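Minutes, project check-in
Item: structure for the 495-residue chain
Input as provided by the requester:
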Amino acid sequence: MMNNLYLKLCFLFFIVLSSCSEEKVDQVEYGTVIGRVVIADTFEPMENVKITSSPTSGTIFTDVEGKFVMNKVKVGEYSFQAQKDGYVAKFESVTVSASNASEIIFELKKATANNKPPAIPVLTTPTDNAINQNIALDLVWTATDPDNDALTFTVTLRNDANTDVKIFSDIKDKKLSLTGLLYGVKYFWQVKANDGINVDILSAVSSFTTSTFPTTRYLGVNKVGENNVIYSIDDASNKYRLTSLETNSWKPRRNTQAKKIAFIRSSGGQNHIYTMNEDGSGITKITNSVPIAGFNSDYIGFSWNTSGSEIIYPNFDKLYKINSSGSGLTQIYKTPNGKFISECDWSNDGTKIALKVNDVNGYNVEIYVIDTSGNIIFQVLSGYKGAVSGLNFSITGQKLLYSRDISEYEDQNYRQLDLRIFEYNLATSTATSIVSGKPSGTNDYDARYSPNEAEIIFTNTSNDGVSIKNIVKSGISTVDSRATLFGGYFMPDWE
């Protein structure tokens, strides 16, 4: 009886055990977590950042690129932590799924509790109260940070000539290169250092004074890239740029009484007259509603009155007068036959105005002199074919310079083959070629009297229209007295 009971119990246990062995056992699944750690402000990668998780799945560190990979992470919800000394620890949640890579990006901010501010910047160059500094120079300073934080700087620049305040921000180097400073001006500068954590730290204020503008006698134009640029030139051929490389400026004319230089500049699809101080500062637009205009902007000109209070200039067939302040625009003459006025010159005594007029192609040229009422009082040139260029009265107003292409060549490109300089004597009504030694195949034009009228200055270039232009000086009616002054320059003025 007992044996039968034992056998039944064993058989029942075997059945239960067999039934349990047939049930499925849950399988563990894994995924991968990849990520990157960067500095919050600069997004630079951070190396050796400790990466841990909760629930715990291991500890790893980032590589030189700030990256990490944690393999065989059980599927589920996790909170990952990025931690490094000197930075605020950051937590990011992530869901790990089977056979997939979950990605995390940590942006760590510097811990600020014990962070110290930068040291006070020290201004080193130029030294405080330095004089005779170039108008293009470097401001240099030193600055350190006790926590080796990356520093950015702000420079404030003022001067004693005007109320301008220039602020240069987000400077990474301990240097600022300046250009276009004013001549003979005292500048004040100060540096502000910022570590991205603490308040800004200001340096002391330092000052320097730029050199005074040198004495120069000549003005000329040089082609730089696509733009004409005006330079002032001294007797030693030192050249000082007056106008920006970014603007097209030409035809400079100095007025010694006003101590101003007038010139033409492209502006909004038109050409206008501007003035500036002799050092290139104080640029002011004079014309506005009526631009200076004619058949070709390279062959158009204007003129000061002697005192520098007024300027005359052409706009196609009309001649205008305007105050040097930009006020008082007045039409003072209109050609009777519709020809364009291309160039003009005002006599020193203010009683006469010389005009060069031409058709829309630049030909059929006339040069004549009018009085202040617009009456023609001298007919200087007419009836010639070919191009004519330049007008300049002598100091007495009894002689007039101009250039004429004696080849009388004409074409649609306004090419000149043999421009020569003539002097017209109003007293005798005669014109004389006055400059000898001109090389064959070249043109002399844009002639101006020297201040003592013993010499003239002008442009000479090959008649091919593409060669270099040079400013040349010559005696009047003197054999072999011509000499090149400034290679590569043109449109001279000499006052």
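Outcome recorded: The CA atoms of residues 317 and 338 lie 6 Å apart.
No further action items on this chain.
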